[in-house]
Amino acid sequence: MAHVATAPVAGGIYTLVPGASGKCVQVPVGDTTPGALLTQAACAAGATNQQWRLVPSAGKYNLVNVATGMCIDVPGNSTTSGTQLQQWGCGTAQNNQLWTLSASAATPGKYQIVGAATSQCLSDRNSSTAGGNPIIQETCADIARMQILLHLAGSTTPSTPTVASDGTGQYTTVQAAIDAVPANNTSRVVITIKPGTYREVVTIPSNKPYITLQGLGSAANQTVIVDNHGASAGYGTEGSSTAFVYGHDFKATNLTLSNDYGVGTQAVAVDVDADRAVFDNVRFLGNQDTLLVNKYRAYYVNSYVEGTVDFIFGGAVAVFSNCSIYQKRTTGGPITAASTPSGNTYGILIYKSTITGAADNVTQLGRPWGAAAQVLYSQDSLSATIATAQPWVDMSSNSWKNARFDEYANTGAGATINGNRPQMSTSAAANYTPQKYLAGTDGWNPT
Hints:
single chain, mainly beta, 15-stranded parallel sheet, 34 strands, globular
């Protein structure tokens, strides 16, 4: 088979051909077993077990086998050069399944495929030309066995995007694409959205699960869904939302969800009422009450949230992992306003995230919308924007002291410890991980 060098793009399906062997990286015989080890074999036209889909995640890529739906994975995050790579069920922003593509300086048109967890390169062991030779990770060098040609085999999406406001897609609005999804669908439907601004209110109905909204730009700020309803304009707080998410197992990636109504009233960007929702590389923009984490469980990863007052609020189980949270008002205000039901162990977890703001010593970690509110800031970087002396405040008749507010192992200028800042013990924190928050009764683990 002749191979043509192809500049890789998100959504493309490629064969991966090491320069030393000219053979294709494969899952042997399309084995669907997690842990099946990768080898090379003579390239065969149409062999889906030799085809890999480039799926953007956290600014890098998952390499997803077309035949099995599993990701190229470094077993156990091993840092040992020579470790044979495997396939495994894809996780969200799981570093040992994330890869960057670095153009070869020595051989134009080829790429080094570099693991995010190990900084080692995908390689053909010993530059062998034998079929069945292991595909390994190896200390990177710009040499033939680690110079990978990506040969385009297909695309994960139609030749045109699902949605494009300029008329080049199947639909001109996001809602029209959602409306076209059959009710009670049982498999995932990916709605791709061309870069642009879509001024509309979007609703994912409860009878349309497994919907993904995927921005096609090179960054999340290139695809924007925005509207400008405010609570004081007759919509009420929840009704002011730009996006309403009710269908379970919803996903959004590489886009922005915004309410630009302005300051002075509640104006929600997204109301999340869907179980097992995932937001990866999503920007949530607003002022007061930006993101309503209303019910059920949701995972927010590699995302950005900004606002002024109570801009992450509600009674859901909501985990924010590796996110950036920004207080945009110079006079500050509380970030969270949780209303966790008293019978629920878990509410809002801000985990390994970064908190910044427009001014110093003005931002509160939260206040209790519900008397039993549960919020934990765990292993975060807290900037000087935090009001260090009193980062938790009361709300109406609800005392922050009676709520379940804690910090654990935070760092930064805003992470001082005093009598107004309850600290969770290391032993207790073992039961307050993202996995514990999200597991529920079905063992859901999107992390």
